[in-house]
Amino acid sequence: MSTLKALADQLYAKSLPPEWRWSKLADLLVCMESGSRPKGGAVGVNSGVPSISAEHMTPQGLFDFSVMRYVPRDYYENMPRGHIRRGDILIVKDGATTGKTCFVDESFPFREAVVNEHVFICRTDDQKILPRLLFYWIWGGTGQNAIRTRFQGAAIGGINQGFADSVTVPVPPITEQSQILARLLTSMLYIDVAHSASKARIADFAALKSAILRSTFAPEKMRHWNLRTIKEISHLVTDGPHVTPTYVPRGVPFVTVTNIQSGCLNFENVSYVTEDDHKQFSARAKAERGDILYSKDGTLGIPCVVNTDREFSFFVSVAIIKLKHDLVDPHFVAHAMTSPFVMHQVKRLGAGAGLKHLVLKSIRALELPCPPLQEQRQIADSLTSQLSIVSQAERACTEELNTILALPGAVIRNAFQEGV
Q1: Burial 253-291 (b: 16+ CB within 10 A, else e)
Q2: Percent of the chain residues past pLDDT 70, beyond the cut
Q3: Could you give the angle at the alpha carbon of 202 between the alpha carbons of 382 and 409, nearest 5°?
Q4: Residue 407: CB partners within 8 Å, gap ≥ 6?
Q5: Helix 131-139 and helix 174-216: axis angle, to 10°?
Q6: Buried b (16+ CB within 10 A) or exposed e, 301-331
Q7: 367-370 and 226-229: which strand pairing?
Q8: 19-171 and 226-370 share one fold
Q9: In the chain, what are the domain boundaries?
Q10: 289 three-state secondary structure
Q11: Cα Rg for the chain, rounded, in angstroms?
Q12: Is 273 helix (H, G, I), strand (E, B) or coil?
């Protein structure tokens, strides 16, 4: 591994501009330290000095202070390490989000703050490299790859202080760093503008979908339709097996909420169960074309019409609704279940303080507007056509957003390879 790394460093070094040099991350820092919390943690401490953890750091390198944590002031004043200063680089050091990185600039809202034991403070020697320039390198693709390749531990793994001794950083001459940083800041500003615009367009498409549904299921229209419960329009409402199956590399697809989140059944990234388990699970309920799958745990209220004859099983987080097809059209029912009228009921009936869930009794009690069957089919055809056009445009915007999200890493790589 060390030989391969040395070779990679040599190849990368050839692309460095003249007068640049490689430096160990540790040699660019004046300190690398983590903080601490009182015994029992910071939960329940409602005042004091802000304690910054992984939950306050986003993958985009920003802070999110929507949920605050604190340490008591007397504890803060006796902490030997972990006090945050302007210009510090914070790195999540362990757990599932190891590597998340943020920079403490002048916009950081707290005059006094600390990190907990899961976050490193990297304080830069600004005579060797500008702090924000080093932040960009660590936050960018190359720095994140370095973190991933040095991840240790199987359960709650992460990086330790040896990480700084094992990682080398391309360092430009100090006289060039301000120009490189200025270019990076300008590029990041343009990227932020494009990112915000792309997210706004996606939000607009979501609002357009809601407007189409509100118009279709407006109160003045529904006044002339019958209201029927899910129980009345179906002959079975149940859910998947109340056990976690043993997954196998190949077999029968096992569908979870993840596979229906788009409103369409998606067998990508699906898990599999054995034929024997599938037969056992199907004894409870077998999914067939024209049935509706419905998310009942976590993300509530997503309907999905089964439009395949492929055999599959489904988890307890997914309910199946077997409709009376002489009363209702499945595509109309799926659209109606996403209408504001029904989603208001879902919000009211969803139980649980943390992870929300709908019990089967509540699903059966949901009321839907039901015009005559022929009118249902006409409405379903019109809605499907309109919403598919919006969804197509929305997918194009999502692809654009994914491209924009990849830009910072490319810009940073370019800056550290080509200089000014």
Answers
A1: bbbbbbbbeeeebeeeeebbbeeebbeebbeebebeeeb
A2: 93
A3: 145
A4: 187, 191, 194
A5: 50
A6: bbbbbbeeeeebbbbebbbbbbbeeeebbbb
A7: antiparallel
A8: yes
A9: 19-171, 226-370
A10: coil
A11: 27
A12: strand
**136 contact partners, CB below 8 Å, separation of at least 6:** 181, 184, 412, 415
**Cβ neighbours of 400 (radius 10 Å):** 15
The residue among 287, 280, 281 whose CA lies nearest residue 321 is 287
| CB 368, CB 227: distance < 8 Å | yes
Report yes or no: 233 and 370 within 8 Å, Cβ to Cβ. Answer: yes
Question: Nearest to residue 34, comparing CAs of 165, 167, 158?
Answer: 158
Give the tens place of pLDDT for each residue, 147-169: 988 888 766 789 998 999 999 99
> Could you tell me if 48 and 110 are in contact, meaning their C-beta atoms sit under 8 angstroms apart?
no
Q: Please state, rounded to an integer, the average pLDDT across all residues of the chain.
A: 90
Distance CA 54, CA 2 (A): 30
Q: Is 155 helix (H, G, I), strand (E, B) or coil?
A: coil
Q: Two tokens at 24? A: 């160990």
pTM (two decimals):
0.73
Residue 47 CB-density burial (10 A; 0-12 exposed, 13-18 middle, 19+ buried) = exposed
| CB half-sphere exposure, 408, CA atoms < 13 A | 23
Q: What CA–CA distance (Å, rounded) separates 373 from 357?
A: 31
Q: H/E element holding 100?
A: none
Which CATH homologous superfamily contains domain 226-370? DNA methylase specificity domains (3.90.220.20)
Report d(CA 420, CA 403) in Å as an integer. 24
Quickly tell me which residue has 């029927």 as its tokens: 228
> Residue 34 pairs with which residues in a beta bridge?
120
Residue 418's pLDDT is 54
The alpha carbon of residue 98 and the mean position of all alpha carbons in its chain are separated, in whole angstroms, by 15
Is the pLDDT at 229 greater than 90? The verdict is yes
Q: Which residue has the tokens 């002959």?
A: 235
Closest by CA to 51, choosing from 100, 125, 117, is: 117
Q: Give Cα 30 distance to the centre of its chain.
A: 34
Q: Per CATH, which fold does 19-171 belong to? A: Adenine-n6-DNA-methyltransferase TaqI; Chain A, domain 2 (3.90.220)
pLDDT in tens, 86-143: 999 999 999 989 999 999 999 999 999 999 999 999 999 999 999 999 999 999 988 9
Contact assessment for residue 343 and residue 282, using Cβ atoms and an 8 Å cutoff: no
